[in-house]
Amino acid sequence: MGTSFFNNQTSITEFVLLGFVAVKSGKSLLTILFLTMYIMVIMCFLGNSIIITVSLLNQSLHTPMYFFLGNLSFLDICYISVTLPKMIVDLWVLSPHISLLDCAAQMFFLISLAGAEGFLLASMALDRYFAICHPLIYARFMTKWTCLQLTAVSWACGFFNATLHTALTFRLSFCRSNVISHFYCDIPPLLSISCSDTSINEVALFTVGVLVGFSPFFFILISYSLILHAVFNNRQKGHRHKAISTCISHVTVVILFYCSGIFTYFRPTSSYSLEKDQLVGVIYSIITPTLNPIIYSLRNEEVKRAISKLLIR
After folding, report:
1. What is the pTM of this model?
2. CATH number (domain holding residue 47)
3. Would you tell me how many other CB atoms lie within 10 Å of the CB of residue 120?
4. Which residues, in sequence order, are bridge partners of residue 179?
5. How many domains does one find in the chain?
6. 215-232 and 100-133 are packed helices; what angle lies between their axes, rounded to 10 degrees?
7. Does the residue 226 lie in any domain?
8. Sequence-distant contacts of 226-235: CB under 8 A, at least 24 apart
9. How many other CB atoms are found less than 10 A from the CB of residue 299?
10. Which of 76, 93, 135, 310 is the most buried (most CB within 10 A)?
11. Residues near 72 by Cβ (< 8 Å), separated by ≥ 6?
């Protein structure tokens, strides 16, 4: 094998993704898994495409909430496209090789999109906070320019996070093994096969993870604490029910996103194993972005009415 430009000491120019090779359940189970994944990706693309189209065509949905929702839908389309096409090919050929450069690109986009989603969910929590707690100044604060700035910051933070971790990971030597115990290239399985000192990487994973990952999460917690305080101090049950219903979907997406993300990244690399993390990897990279349009948008009455009008036309 030749020498990679990432590291002069690295003799490995490609990796083997062990995820589907390690499955021992036979061809029939693999076929069912393939069909399930294929249906999920179709649902994701159709659901997200419908939401983006409806948000653009319907004037009543030109609000900060649906602006962020359209961005979240676009992000989810990109997110699932980073991993699933390669996983589907690997499932059939059972020879899942990936070059060092492709592995770095896959990891970069996966991390950047995940980081951007965390900040985007925090922006949506801010939108809900002003809409429920300060409705009189909501329109003055949540302007189009504010929404554009929040979205730009979300994407910028995601790309910064990914650039840092990708640079730190691919400066390492991978002379011990080229077998990655996962479906796709990610930080923990790559650190586990490196023959270099990964202490800097682990420190960066936790410290930057707290800044980029947990700061939006804590902001969401604070926002919803204030929202709950305002809702339960409101004596009008109709307003209370409406406020809670607008937040349930967002909270569900936040819980699913952060629970799988915390399990994936915020633990020692020595505890990583394929058997333990296969399910979480599928949830984090496929199921969560696939369910987002269903959980968040398709149970929203305004989106349902807009979709119905579009279909009638």
Report:
1. 0.78
2. 1.20.1070.10
3. 24
4. 16
5. 1
6. 20
7. yes
8. 226/129, 226/133, 227/128, 227/129, 227/132, 227/133, 230/132, 230/133, 231/132
9. 13
10. 76
11. 117, 120, 121, 124, 292, 296
